[in-house]
Amino acid sequence: MEDPELVQNLRGHKDTVTGVHFNPSQKQVASSSLDGSVMLWNWNSDKKAYRFTAHTDAVMDICFSRTGHMMASGSRDRSIRLWIPNLKGESTEFKAHQGAVRSVEFSPENLRLVSSSDDKSIKLWTVHRSKFTQSLNEHTNWVRCVRWSPDGNLLVSCSDDKTIKLWDEKSGSCIQTFHEGKGYGQHVAFHPSGSCIGVGTSDSKVKVFDIRAMKLQQQYSAHEGPVTQVSFHPSGNYLVSSSQDQTVKLYDLLSVKPLCTLYGHEKDVSCIAFSPHGEYFASGSGDGKILVWKSNLELPAKGGNKENQMPVPSKDVLKESNQIEDSIAKLGLNSNNPSKPAEFSSNKAHAESQLFSSNKANAESQQSSSNTYRKSAMAELGKSGKDESSGEVMREVLVQLQEMNNQLDTLTQTVLFMEKRLSLVETQVKLISDSKS
SS3 for 363? Predict the structure, then answer.
Protein backbone atom coordinates (compact mmCIF):
# COMPACT_ATOMS: atom_id res chain seq x y z
CA MET A 1 0.00 0.00 0.00
CA GLU A 2 1.23 3.49 -0.90
CA ASP A 3 1.36 6.19 1.76
CA PRO A 4 -1.29 8.93 1.55
CA GLU A 5 -0.25 11.89 -0.60
CA LEU A 6 -0.99 15.59 -0.17
CA VAL A 7 -3.17 16.93 -3.01
CA GLN A 8 -4.37 20.33 -1.75
CA ASN A 9 -3.28 23.05 0.68
CA LEU A 10 -6.23 25.34 1.44
CA ARG A 11 -5.49 28.72 3.03
CA GLY A 12 -8.08 31.27 4.15
CA HIS A 13 -8.78 30.97 7.87
CA LYS A 14 -7.10 33.46 10.18
CA ASP A 15 -7.04 31.21 13.24
CA THR A 16 -7.19 27.54 14.27
CA VAL A 17 -9.38 25.31 12.09
CA THR A 18 -11.72 23.48 14.50
CA GLY A 19 -13.67 21.23 12.12
CA VAL A 20 -13.63 19.84 8.56
CA HIS A 21 -16.31 17.88 6.73
CA PHE A 22 -16.73 16.66 3.15
CA ASN A 23 -19.87 17.16 1.10
CA PRO A 24 -21.29 13.73 0.11
CA SER A 25 -20.31 14.54 -3.49
CA GLN A 26 -16.68 14.93 -2.29
CA LYS A 27 -16.40 18.10 -4.41
CA GLN A 28 -16.61 20.49 -1.45
CA VAL A 29 -15.10 20.71 2.02
CA ALA A 30 -16.66 22.80 4.79
CA SER A 31 -14.52 24.12 7.65
CA SER A 32 -15.04 25.99 10.92
CA SER A 33 -12.54 28.14 12.78
CA LEU A 34 -11.76 30.12 15.91
CA ASP A 35 -11.76 33.19 13.62
CA GLY A 36 -15.59 33.07 13.82
CA SER A 37 -16.18 31.98 10.23
CA VAL A 38 -17.43 28.98 8.28
CA MET A 39 -15.78 28.41 4.88
CA LEU A 40 -16.92 26.32 1.93
CA TRP A 41 -14.14 25.12 -0.35
CA ASN A 42 -14.43 23.77 -3.91
CA TRP A 43 -11.14 22.07 -3.26
CA ASN A 44 -10.73 20.17 -6.57
CA SER A 45 -11.67 23.05 -8.89
CA ASP A 46 -10.64 26.66 -9.56
CA LYS A 47 -13.79 28.12 -7.96
CA LYS A 48 -13.28 30.52 -5.08
CA ALA A 49 -14.07 29.58 -1.49
CA TYR A 50 -17.12 31.07 0.27
CA ARG A 51 -16.81 32.63 3.73
CA PHE A 52 -19.86 32.84 6.06
CA THR A 53 -19.69 35.07 9.12
CA ALA A 54 -23.08 35.08 10.87
CA HIS A 55 -21.67 33.72 14.16
CA THR A 56 -20.45 36.32 16.67
CA ASP A 57 -17.73 34.17 18.24
CA ALA A 58 -15.47 31.20 17.46
CA VAL A 59 -17.08 28.37 15.47
CA MET A 60 -16.29 25.02 17.09
CA ASP A 61 -17.73 22.46 14.64
CA ILE A 62 -19.20 22.07 11.16
CA CYS A 63 -20.99 19.28 9.32
CA PHE A 64 -22.93 18.62 6.11
CA SER A 65 -26.31 16.93 6.09
CA ARG A 66 -26.30 13.40 4.63
CA THR A 67 -27.64 14.77 1.32
CA GLY A 68 -25.27 17.75 1.23
CA HIS A 69 -28.07 20.32 0.86
CA MET A 70 -27.51 21.86 4.31
CA MET A 71 -24.70 22.55 6.78
CA ALA A 72 -24.82 22.96 10.55
CA SER A 73 -22.33 24.79 12.75
CA GLY A 74 -21.92 25.22 16.50
CA SER A 75 -20.28 28.23 18.14
CA ARG A 76 -18.99 29.78 21.34
CA ASP A 77 -21.79 32.32 20.92
CA ARG A 78 -24.04 29.47 22.27
CA SER A 79 -25.92 29.09 18.99
CA ILE A 80 -26.29 26.55 16.21
CA ARG A 81 -26.76 27.76 12.66
CA LEU A 82 -28.28 25.86 9.77
CA TRP A 83 -26.80 26.99 6.44
CA ILE A 84 -27.70 26.66 2.77
CA PRO A 85 -24.29 26.03 1.14
CA ASN A 86 -24.45 28.57 -1.68
CA LEU A 87 -23.14 32.03 -2.49
CA LYS A 88 -25.76 33.83 -0.37
CA GLY A 89 -24.94 31.82 2.74
CA GLU A 90 -28.41 32.10 4.27
CA SER A 91 -28.73 30.65 7.77
CA THR A 92 -31.25 29.92 10.51
CA GLU A 93 -30.31 30.21 14.19
CA PHE A 94 -31.08 27.58 16.87
CA LYS A 95 -30.68 28.61 20.50
CA ALA A 96 -31.15 26.67 23.74
CA HIS A 97 -27.65 25.99 25.08
CA GLN A 98 -26.29 28.05 27.97
CA GLY A 99 -22.65 27.52 27.01
CA ALA A 100 -20.38 27.19 23.98
CA VAL A 101 -21.61 24.59 21.47
CA ARG A 102 -18.76 22.11 20.96
CA SER A 103 -20.17 19.73 18.33
CA VAL A 104 -23.11 19.26 15.97
CA GLU A 105 -24.25 16.45 13.67
CA PHE A 106 -27.24 15.59 11.48
CA SER A 107 -29.09 12.35 12.12
CA PRO A 108 -28.83 9.65 9.41
CA GLU A 109 -32.32 10.52 8.07
CA ASN A 110 -31.51 14.30 8.09
CA LEU A 111 -34.58 15.19 10.16
CA ARG A 112 -32.80 15.92 13.44
CA LEU A 113 -29.67 17.49 14.87
CA VAL A 114 -27.70 16.63 17.98
CA SER A 115 -25.37 19.05 19.76
CA SER A 116 -23.08 19.08 22.80
CA SER A 117 -22.04 22.03 24.91
CA ASP A 118 -19.98 23.47 27.74
CA ASP A 119 -23.27 23.69 29.66
CA LYS A 120 -22.75 19.91 30.29
CA SER A 121 -25.77 18.95 28.15
CA ILE A 122 -26.56 17.15 24.90
CA LYS A 123 -29.55 18.52 23.01
CA LEU A 124 -31.72 17.12 20.21
CA TRP A 125 -33.42 19.34 17.62
CA THR A 126 -35.82 19.02 14.70
CA VAL A 127 -34.35 20.46 11.52
CA HIS A 128 -37.43 21.79 9.70
CA ARG A 129 -39.02 23.54 12.67
CA SER A 130 -35.68 24.58 14.22
CA LYS A 131 -37.08 23.31 17.51
CA PHE A 132 -35.30 21.98 20.59
CA THR A 133 -36.93 18.67 21.61
CA GLN A 134 -34.86 16.91 24.28
CA SER A 135 -31.90 17.37 26.62
CA LEU A 136 -29.58 14.66 28.00
CA ASN A 137 -27.99 15.85 31.23
CA GLU A 138 -25.97 13.09 32.89
CA HIS A 139 -22.51 14.53 32.18
CA THR A 140 -20.95 16.62 34.97
CA ASN A 141 -18.52 18.67 32.88
CA TRP A 142 -18.12 20.07 29.35
CA VAL A 143 -19.38 17.68 26.67
CA ARG A 144 -16.70 17.75 24.00
CA CYS A 145 -18.37 15.70 21.28
CA VAL A 146 -21.54 13.74 20.45
CA ARG A 147 -22.21 11.54 17.42
CA TRP A 148 -25.08 9.42 15.98
CA SER A 149 -24.81 5.71 15.31
CA PRO A 150 -25.22 4.76 11.62
CA ASP A 151 -28.78 3.51 12.24
CA GLY A 152 -29.75 6.57 14.30
CA ASN A 153 -30.77 4.55 17.36
CA LEU A 154 -27.79 5.36 19.58
CA LEU A 155 -25.68 8.37 20.52
CA VAL A 156 -22.15 8.42 21.92
CA SER A 157 -20.61 11.34 23.80
CA CYS A 158 -17.37 12.21 25.59
CA SER A 159 -16.82 14.76 28.31
CA ASP A 160 -14.23 16.42 30.50
CA ASP A 161 -15.80 14.44 33.37
CA LYS A 162 -13.63 11.54 32.09
CA THR A 163 -16.56 9.47 30.84
CA ILE A 164 -17.72 8.21 27.45
CA LYS A 165 -21.46 7.59 27.45
CA LEU A 166 -23.63 5.51 25.15
CA TRP A 167 -27.26 6.69 24.90
CA ASP A 168 -30.54 5.19 23.72
CA GLU A 169 -31.86 7.98 21.49
CA LYS A 170 -35.54 7.06 21.89
CA SER A 171 -35.66 6.91 25.67
CA GLY A 172 -32.88 9.42 26.29
CA SER A 173 -31.33 7.07 28.84
CA CYS A 174 -27.63 6.30 29.25
CA ILE A 175 -27.13 2.57 28.68
CA GLN A 176 -23.36 2.37 29.25
CA THR A 177 -20.56 4.50 30.68
CA PHE A 178 -16.86 3.93 29.96
CA HIS A 179 -14.55 5.58 32.48
CA GLU A 180 -11.20 7.08 31.49
CA GLY A 181 -8.31 6.87 33.94
CA LYS A 182 -5.80 9.66 33.36
CA GLY A 183 -7.20 11.69 30.50
CA TYR A 184 -10.63 12.40 29.01
CA GLY A 185 -12.19 11.84 25.61
CA GLN A 186 -11.85 14.79 23.23
CA HIS A 187 -13.60 13.27 20.23
CA VAL A 188 -15.71 10.21 19.42
CA ALA A 189 -16.80 8.50 16.19
CA PHE A 190 -18.91 5.47 15.31
CA HIS A 191 -17.46 2.62 13.27
CA PRO A 192 -19.40 2.24 9.96
CA SER A 193 -20.84 -1.06 11.21
CA GLY A 194 -22.20 0.65 14.33
CA SER A 195 -20.64 -2.05 16.51
CA CYS A 196 -17.63 -0.05 17.71
CA ILE A 197 -16.69 3.50 18.71
CA GLY A 198 -13.38 5.28 18.30
CA VAL A 199 -12.14 7.75 20.92
CA GLY A 200 -9.29 10.25 20.89
CA THR A 201 -8.11 11.17 24.39
CA SER A 202 -6.26 14.01 26.08
CA ASP A 203 -3.57 11.57 27.29
CA SER A 204 -2.47 10.82 23.70
CA LYS A 205 -4.41 7.57 23.22
CA VAL A 206 -6.60 6.30 20.40
CA LYS A 207 -9.07 3.69 21.65
CA VAL A 208 -11.63 1.44 19.98
CA PHE A 209 -14.45 0.07 22.16
CA ASP A 210 -16.75 -2.81 21.19
CA ILE A 211 -20.21 -1.59 22.27
CA ARG A 212 -21.74 -5.09 22.06
CA ALA A 213 -19.31 -6.69 24.51
CA MET A 214 -18.89 -3.29 26.23
CA LYS A 215 -15.11 -3.69 26.34
CA LEU A 216 -11.97 -1.97 25.16
CA GLN A 217 -11.00 -3.69 21.93
CA GLN A 218 -7.90 -1.85 20.70
CA GLN A 219 -5.63 0.87 22.06
CA TYR A 220 -2.86 2.84 20.35
CA SER A 221 -0.25 5.07 22.00
CA ALA A 222 1.45 6.31 18.83
CA HIS A 223 0.92 10.06 19.40
CA GLU A 224 3.13 12.21 21.62
CA GLY A 225 0.42 14.79 22.33
CA PRO A 226 -3.33 14.92 23.02
CA VAL A 227 -5.44 13.33 20.26
CA THR A 228 -7.88 15.94 18.96
CA GLN A 229 -10.07 13.92 16.56
CA VAL A 230 -10.53 10.47 15.00
CA SER A 231 -12.28 9.30 11.83
CA PHE A 232 -13.07 5.81 10.47
CA HIS A 233 -12.54 4.89 6.83
CA PRO A 234 -15.88 3.84 5.22
CA SER A 235 -14.55 0.29 4.77
CA GLY A 236 -14.20 0.05 8.54
CA ASN A 237 -10.67 -1.32 8.20
CA TYR A 238 -8.75 1.89 8.89
CA LEU A 239 -8.81 4.85 11.25
CA VAL A 240 -7.06 8.23 11.07
CA SER A 241 -6.26 10.55 13.99
CA SER A 242 -5.05 14.13 14.49
CA SER A 243 -3.00 15.37 17.42
CA GLN A 244 -1.45 18.37 19.12
CA ASP A 245 1.93 16.77 18.33
CA GLN A 246 1.44 18.32 14.83
CA THR A 247 0.99 14.95 13.11
CA VAL A 248 -1.69 12.82 11.49
CA LYS A 249 -1.54 9.05 11.97
CA LEU A 250 -3.19 6.25 10.01
CA TYR A 251 -4.00 2.85 11.58
CA ASP A 252 -4.77 -0.58 10.15
CA LEU A 253 -7.52 -1.97 12.43
CA LEU A 254 -7.28 -5.48 10.98
CA SER A 255 -3.59 -5.95 11.74
CA VAL A 256 -3.88 -3.70 14.84
CA LYS A 257 -0.95 -1.39 14.08
CA PRO A 258 -0.16 2.18 12.99
CA LEU A 259 0.58 2.37 9.26
CA CYS A 260 2.18 5.78 8.81
CA THR A 261 2.70 9.27 10.22
CA LEU A 262 1.96 12.33 8.10
CA TYR A 263 3.64 15.72 8.50
CA GLY A 264 2.75 19.03 6.87
CA HIS A 265 1.12 21.24 9.46
CA GLU A 266 3.18 23.84 11.31
CA LYS A 267 1.08 23.78 14.50
CA ASP A 268 -1.27 21.44 16.39
CA VAL A 269 -3.49 19.35 14.08
CA SER A 270 -6.95 20.11 15.46
CA CYS A 271 -9.35 18.13 13.24
CA ILE A 272 -9.53 15.25 10.77
CA ALA A 273 -12.21 13.64 8.57
CA PHE A 274 -12.44 11.03 5.81
CA SER A 275 -14.49 11.75 2.70
CA PRO A 276 -17.74 9.72 2.33
CA HIS A 277 -16.11 7.20 -0.05
CA GLY A 278 -12.76 7.14 1.73
CA GLU A 279 -10.75 8.27 -1.28
CA TYR A 280 -9.58 11.39 0.57
CA PHE A 281 -9.28 12.84 4.07
CA ALA A 282 -8.76 16.40 5.26
CA SER A 283 -6.91 17.79 8.26
CA GLY A 284 -7.12 21.25 9.86
CA SER A 285 -4.62 22.94 12.12
CA GLY A 286 -3.70 25.83 14.39
CA ASP A 287 -1.75 27.21 11.44
CA GLY A 288 -5.10 28.01 9.76
CA LYS A 289 -4.46 25.58 6.90
CA ILE A 290 -6.54 22.68 5.63
CA LEU A 291 -4.62 19.87 3.96
CA VAL A 292 -6.46 17.43 1.69
CA TRP A 293 -4.82 14.02 1.34
CA LYS A 294 -5.42 11.19 -1.10
CA SER A 295 -5.73 8.12 1.13
CA ASN A 296 -4.57 5.43 -1.35
CA LEU A 297 -6.64 2.93 0.65
CA GLU A 298 -9.03 0.25 -0.55
CA LEU A 299 -12.53 1.59 -1.14
CA PRO A 300 -15.52 -0.09 0.56
CA ALA A 301 -17.18 -2.72 -1.65
CA LYS A 302 -20.63 -1.79 -2.90
CA GLY A 303 -23.31 -3.76 -1.11
CA GLY A 304 -20.71 -5.24 1.22
CA ASN A 305 -21.76 -6.68 4.53
CA LYS A 306 -20.66 -4.24 7.17
CA GLU A 307 -20.81 -6.95 9.81
CA ASN A 308 -17.74 -8.46 8.16
CA GLN A 309 -15.88 -5.15 8.17
CA MET A 310 -15.24 -4.83 11.89
CA PRO A 311 -11.75 -4.46 13.36
CA VAL A 312 -10.26 -7.65 14.74
CA PRO A 313 -9.98 -7.62 18.54
CA SER A 314 -6.51 -7.41 20.02
CA LYS A 315 -6.14 -10.50 22.24
CA ASP A 316 -3.54 -8.76 24.40
CA VAL A 317 -5.80 -5.78 24.99
CA LEU A 318 -8.81 -7.96 25.77
CA LYS A 319 -6.74 -10.08 28.14
CA GLU A 320 -5.47 -6.95 29.86
CA SER A 321 -9.00 -5.58 30.11
CA ASN A 322 -10.26 -8.81 31.72
CA GLN A 323 -7.38 -8.75 34.19
CA ILE A 324 -8.21 -5.16 35.12
CA GLU A 325 -11.87 -6.05 35.70
CA ASP A 326 -10.85 -9.03 37.86
CA SER A 327 -8.47 -6.82 39.84
CA ILE A 328 -11.21 -4.26 40.42
CA ALA A 329 -13.51 -6.98 41.71
CA LYS A 330 -10.85 -8.30 44.07
CA LEU A 331 -9.94 -4.84 45.33
CA GLY A 332 -13.60 -4.11 45.92
CA LEU A 333 -13.91 -7.18 48.17
CA ASN A 334 -10.98 -5.97 50.28
CA SER A 335 -12.01 -2.32 50.38
CA ASN A 336 -14.35 -0.38 52.62
CA ASN A 337 -16.73 0.05 49.68
CA PRO A 338 -17.53 -3.50 48.52
CA SER A 339 -20.55 -2.39 46.47
CA LYS A 340 -18.43 -0.76 43.73
CA PRO A 341 -17.64 -3.95 41.76
CA ALA A 342 -21.29 -4.99 41.98
CA GLU A 343 -22.33 -1.63 40.59
CA PHE A 344 -19.86 -2.04 37.70
CA SER A 345 -21.25 -5.49 36.84
CA SER A 346 -24.82 -4.24 37.11
CA ASN A 347 -24.16 -1.40 34.65
CA LYS A 348 -22.50 -3.81 32.23
CA ALA A 349 -25.38 -6.25 32.36
CA HIS A 350 -27.90 -3.46 31.89
CA ALA A 351 -26.12 -2.20 28.78
CA GLU A 352 -25.92 -5.69 27.30
CA SER A 353 -29.60 -6.32 27.94
CA GLN A 354 -30.44 -3.11 26.10
CA LEU A 355 -28.38 -4.10 23.06
CA PHE A 356 -29.17 -7.80 22.92
CA SER A 357 -32.80 -8.86 23.10
CA SER A 358 -31.85 -12.55 22.70
CA ASN A 359 -31.19 -14.39 25.97
CA LYS A 360 -32.02 -11.25 27.93
CA ALA A 361 -33.75 -13.17 30.72
CA ASN A 362 -30.81 -15.56 31.07
CA ALA A 363 -28.26 -12.75 31.23
CA GLU A 364 -30.25 -10.88 33.87
CA SER A 365 -30.68 -14.11 35.83
CA GLN A 366 -26.94 -14.75 35.76
CA GLN A 367 -26.14 -11.20 36.84
CA SER A 368 -28.83 -11.18 39.54
CA SER A 369 -27.40 -14.38 40.99
CA SER A 370 -23.92 -12.85 40.92
CA ASN A 371 -25.07 -9.69 42.67
CA THR A 372 -27.10 -11.64 45.30
CA TYR A 373 -24.19 -13.93 46.05
CA ARG A 374 -21.83 -10.97 46.22
CA LYS A 375 -24.05 -9.14 48.74
CA SER A 376 -24.41 -12.21 50.94
CA ALA A 377 -20.66 -12.75 50.79
CA MET A 378 -20.06 -9.17 51.84
CA ALA A 379 -22.40 -9.61 54.79
CA GLU A 380 -20.63 -12.81 55.81
CA LEU A 381 -17.24 -11.16 55.57
CA GLY A 382 -18.45 -8.21 57.60
CA LYS A 383 -19.60 -10.53 60.40
CA SER A 384 -16.33 -12.41 60.33
CA GLY A 385 -14.30 -9.35 61.34
CA LYS A 386 -10.99 -10.50 62.73
CA ASP A 387 -11.91 -14.17 62.52
CA GLU A 388 -9.04 -16.31 61.25
CA SER A 389 -11.42 -18.17 58.95
CA SER A 390 -12.15 -14.99 56.96
CA GLY A 391 -9.22 -15.76 54.66
CA GLU A 392 -10.77 -19.08 53.62
CA VAL A 393 -14.16 -17.39 53.10
CA MET A 394 -12.46 -14.75 50.95
CA ARG A 395 -10.82 -17.34 48.72
CA GLU A 396 -14.11 -19.20 48.33
CA VAL A 397 -15.90 -15.97 47.41
CA LEU A 398 -13.29 -15.12 44.78
CA VAL A 399 -13.52 -18.60 43.25
CA GLN A 400 -17.33 -18.42 43.07
CA LEU A 401 -17.30 -14.90 41.58
CA GLN A 402 -14.71 -15.86 38.99
CA GLU A 403 -16.86 -18.83 37.97
CA MET A 404 -19.95 -16.61 37.62
CA ASN A 405 -18.01 -14.03 35.60
CA ASN A 406 -16.79 -16.79 33.27
CA GLN A 407 -20.37 -17.99 32.79
CA LEU A 408 -21.50 -14.45 31.99
CA ASP A 409 -18.67 -14.01 29.47
CA THR A 410 -19.61 -17.30 27.81
CA LEU A 411 -23.24 -16.18 27.58
CA THR A 412 -22.17 -12.85 26.03
CA GLN A 413 -20.03 -14.60 23.41
CA THR A 414 -22.95 -16.92 22.59
CA VAL A 415 -25.24 -13.94 22.04
CA LEU A 416 -22.67 -12.28 19.75
CA PHE A 417 -22.32 -15.48 17.75
CA MET A 418 -26.11 -15.82 17.39
CA GLU A 419 -26.34 -12.20 16.25
CA LYS A 420 -23.77 -12.83 13.49
CA ARG A 421 -25.61 -15.98 12.41
CA LEU A 422 -28.86 -14.00 12.25
CA SER A 423 -27.21 -11.34 10.07
CA LEU A 424 -25.96 -14.02 7.66
CA VAL A 425 -29.42 -15.60 7.44
CA GLU A 426 -31.01 -12.20 6.74
CA THR A 427 -28.46 -11.61 3.97
CA GLN A 428 -29.20 -15.01 2.38
CA VAL A 429 -32.96 -14.39 2.55
CA LYS A 430 -32.51 -11.03 0.87
CA LEU A 431 -30.37 -12.54 -1.91
CA ILE A 432 -32.93 -15.29 -2.56
CA SER A 433 -35.75 -12.76 -2.57
CA ASP A 434 -33.88 -10.50 -5.00
CA SER A 435 -33.11 -13.43 -7.35
CA LYS A 436 -36.77 -14.51 -7.45
CA SER A 437 -37.98 -10.99 -8.19
Answer: helix
pLDDT > 60? residue 205:
yes
| Contact indicator for 346, 335 with CB cutoff of 8 Å | no
How far are the Cα atoms of 7, 140, 243, 403 from residue 409, in angstroms, in the given order? 47, 31, 35, 10
Q: What pLDDT was estimated at residue 356?
A: 35
DSSP 62-131: EEE-TTSS-EEEEETTSEEEEE--SSS--EEEEE--SS-EEEEEE-TTSSEEEEEETTS-EEEEETTTTE
Strand-pair partners of 198: 189, 208
Coil, helix or strand for 362?
helix
Q: What does the pLDDT read at residue 421?
A: 60
pLDDT tens digits along 273-322 = 999 999 999 999 999 999 999 999 977 665 444 443 454 444 444 444 44
Q: Could you give the C-alpha distances from 222 to 204, 255, 260, in angstroms and in order? A: 8, 15, 10
**pLDDT at residue 401 greater than cutoff 80:** no
pLDDT at 430: 65
CA dist list (Å): 213 to 204, 238, 404: 24, 21, 16
Q: How far apart are CA 364 and CA 239, in angstroms?
A: 35
Question: What average pLDDT is seen over the chain?
Answer: 81
The rounded distance, in Å, linking the Cα atoms of 157 and 139 is 9
At 166 the three-state DSSP class reads: strand
Query: What three-state secondary structure class fits 216?
Result: strand
Q: What is the mean pLDDT of residues 219-242?
A: 97
Cα 183 to its chain centre, rounded Å, is: 16
Calpha distance 375→372 (Å, rounded): 5
Helix (H) or strand (E) holding 250: strand 248-252
Q: Partners of 284 in the beta sheet? A: 271, 290
Q: Cα 247 vs. chain centroid, distance in angstroms?
A: 21
Task: Supply angle C-alpha 147, 156, 227, rounded to 5.
Answer: 75
Task: Quote the pLDDT of residue 48.
Answer: 85
Decide: 166 and 351 in contact? Cβ < 8 Å.
yes
